[in-house]
């Protein structure tokens, strides 16, 4: 049933309250490393750190989130201070001797794990762009631009971001590489100018929609050949419903900005396919990985229910509803909302659990890890409240 | 309650029947790649292949298993033919241009994934040693010796087997590297002579018992500093109950061979600690990973129940009972046996499931994957039936 304006407002308020009264206070209280700079992000259920290693994805994402809360939601001094704590840490320890961002550093910034991928540079780029806007400090924008250069320089080299296969064997396009190009360029565009942004976004959207999306199979494939054909074997059949909805969220934003109704429709189709492929008819919730050909799970964690998948599904459903008014997206929003809020939320300690078993019971009680930080959940809460509450302009997220 | 000779005989017969009437027929029927050589080992519940990539751990392990069935259990021509199919494939495609074994090759042998670790060489060494005994072909022993050289040459170089960390940062000893030295050298010793075997075994056992095992914490730590101290953080607290019992099984074999009662007692202690740390009081079964300090699980797959952990626990408990006669090991054998056989066995299609949820329900219905092959289960069935049925000599496994 279509929601009334009051319904939307009530949901918006709920998401806003959750952001500012549960999630933000948890990370403000437990994550800031006043001793060594940066953030502690491997946190028990109650916020106690269980590890002090610093994974750079999480450092950069948290800088971005604090800076964005300051820029877009509420210019509270504690948000800016929190952003600065991470930004200065990244300024000091963000680059290794080879000019790459380490995958992880020790608590004091000593490089620990070498680069595993190019996403560390992506998150650094968006972090420093938002921080540059918050503070006006020129070094931050410079660091962002350099990180963007590194990402683009490595993104299209065959396998340069994946050293595990022999050169030339079974080359593949990664959907992740392309959709992050869209998301990163969109975010940087909010903060500074670069002649490459539009072209990078266009080309990445084209790659995704013409090579990864296959209408005949109603699916978005994570890996395809460079000319967009199927890769034999499980890798070629792998669907990631969470990546599907997240990616289409960014593409919908772009389509909405351009008023490209055809692209809106195509992205909305992929959102529906992803939700339908991922939804677990037996237990509810969205599966982590799905094989395009069969229901059979082939990954240890494939049938788990993850917070980020559900967070991104809420954003995509809300955005698709906002852009199209189609009731089916509101139905999906409410279906995902009720399953998610009932199981992931921790009303005792704040924040949300990240990892549930297939049946919806909590598998890991931790609140932060090397993969879970202050990012997907607060970003989703922020975006959904803005979508539902504010008759928004494209580039304005809306204050709580 | 202590078992009677009849009890032991009945269990032995059960394990023997399961090996020869369920597990062996499944792999004979579904795994042999008569078209391209080697083995298909990514198999659905009913044996249908879902992937044709060939992971070299699995190729070598399967060669070893067929050759060992032929050598030790029953010299059936089909066992030797099955061993030959894999051995000739490894002879042709086992080494890459850099003189290492690829981690995976495509169905036709084209190198696909580069070396990730040195265990591929370990399993190649034992495969070719057993195959050399089965056939008397000199090239097989030569290939085994070369693989042993590669393993030993790389095993002790700091981080040479793990390129993920920056040089010199947080050096660690890996329990896996050491216990595989014991297992590999023990197996090779059955097939040919090498002056290094005894020294490698002695040193590896000493490293494990003096550096990885800590009596004050009643635990075997997977990673410690080179001088045997605790590594801060979750990596340093990680216990792997499956590795614990598997490792102690090899050490018990050595201690039994030498008549070293003190080492038998120490290894038996570690088996008990591992079983107690791993046993899930809520749902039963053995957890995959445990943190030494807390019950809290921090890995996605940490609370799953895996076939190989339970297989190795059965071997260790049976062997410890055989060597000591202590009732507690028989109690553990029966406890693990009944939980395991009830949940992992697939009486409809043969073979066993590999991956259960914490609550014992089947998470993945597949019978083979890049990590599950024709190895842990048949080896355990073979070893347990020999331990329980035969008043065995150390070096003789006992025919079914």
Task: Spell out the blueprint of helices and strands.
The structure is a homodimer of 400-residue chains.
Chain A: H1 5-30, E1 42-43, E2 49-51, E3 54-55, H2 56-73, H3 77-93, E4 104-105, E5 111-113, H4 119-135, H5 138-155, E6 173-174, H6 175-189, H7 197-212, E7 213-214, E8 219-220, E9 223-224, H8 234-237, E10 238-239, H9 241-258, H10 261-278, E11 290-291, E12 305-306, H11 307-324, H12 327-344, E13 355-356, E14 362-364, H13 376-389
Antiparallel strand pairs in A: 1-2, 3-4, 4-5, 6-9, 7-8, 10-11, 12-13, 13-14
Helix pairs in contact in A: 1-13, 2-3, 2-4, 3-4, 4-5, 4-6, 5-6, 6-7, 6-9, 9-10, 9-11, 10-11, 11-12, 11-13
Walkthrough of the structure:
- The structure is a homodimer of 400-residue chains.
- Chain A contains 13 helices and 14 strands.
- Chain A has 400 residues and is mainly α.
- The first copy, chain A, has a domain at 170-343: Glycosyltransferase (Alpha/alpha barrel).
- In chain A, the strands form six sheets. Chain A has a three-stranded antiparallel β-sheet. In chain A, strands 12-13-14 form a three-stranded antiparallel β-sheet.
- In chain A, strand 13 (355-356) and strand 14 (362-364) form a beta hairpin.
- In chain A, helix 6 packs antiparallel against helix 7 and helix 10 (261-278) packs antiparallel against helix 11.
- Mean pLDDT of chain A is 94; it is low at 392-396.
- Chain A binds chain B through residues 42, 44, 50-53, 96, 102-103, 106, 110-114, 116, 163-166, 169-170, 232-234, 296-304, 355, 357-359, 363-366, 369, and chain B through 42, 44, 50-53, 96, 102-103, 106, 110-114, 116, 163-166, 169-170, 232-234, 296-304, 355, 357-359, 363-366, 369.
């Amino acid at each position: 049933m279509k929601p009334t304006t009051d319904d939307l407002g009530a949901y918006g308020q709920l998401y806003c309250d959750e952001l500012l009264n549960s999630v933000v206070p948890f990370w403000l209280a437990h994550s800031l490393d006043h001793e060594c700079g940066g953030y502690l992000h491997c946190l028990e259920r109650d916020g106690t750190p269980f590890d002090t290693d610093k994974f750079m994805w999480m450092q950069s994402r948290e800088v971005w989130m604090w800076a964005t809360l300051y820029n877009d939601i509420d210019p509270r001094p504690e948000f800016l201070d929190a952003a600065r704590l991470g930004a200065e840490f990244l300024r000091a320890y963000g680059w290794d001797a080879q000019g790459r961002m380490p995958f992880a550093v020790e608590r004091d910034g000593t490089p620990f794990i070498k680069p595993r991928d190019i996403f560390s540079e992506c998150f650094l780029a968006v972090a420093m762009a938002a921080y540059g806007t918050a503070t006006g400090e020129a070094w931050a924008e410079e660091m962002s631009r350099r990180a963007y250069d590194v990402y683009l320089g490595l993104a299209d080299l065959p396998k340069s971001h994946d050293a595990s296969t022999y050169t030339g064997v079974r080359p593949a396009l990664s959907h992740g590489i392309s959709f992050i190009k869209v998301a990163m360029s969109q975010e940087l565009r909010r903060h500074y100018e670069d002649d490459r942004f539009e072209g990078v976004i266009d080309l990445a959207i084209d790659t995704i929609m013409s090579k990864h999306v296959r209408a005949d199979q109603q699916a978005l494939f994570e890996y395809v050949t460079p000319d967009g054909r199927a890769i034999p074997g499980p890798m070629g059949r792998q669907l990631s419903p969470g990546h599907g909805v997240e990616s289409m969220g960014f593409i919908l934003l772009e389509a909405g900005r351009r008023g490209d109704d055809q692209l809106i429709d195509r992205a909305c189709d992929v959102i529906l396919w992803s939700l339908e492929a991922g939804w677990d008819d037996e237990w509810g919730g969205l599966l982590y990985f799905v094989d395009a050909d069969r229901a059979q799970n082939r990954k240890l964690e494939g049938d788990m229910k993850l917070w980020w998948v559900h967070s991104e599904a809420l954003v995509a459903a809300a955005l698709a509803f906002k852009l199209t008014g189609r009731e089916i997206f509101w139905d999906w929003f409410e279906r995902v909302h009720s399953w998610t809020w009932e199981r992931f939320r921790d009303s005792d300690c704040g924040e949300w659990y990240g990892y549930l078993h297939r049946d919806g019971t909590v598998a890991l009680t931790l609140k932060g890890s090397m993969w879970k930080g202050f990012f997907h959940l607060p970003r989703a809460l922020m975006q959904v409240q803005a979508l539902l509450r504010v008759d928004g302009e494209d580039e304005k997220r809306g204050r709580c």
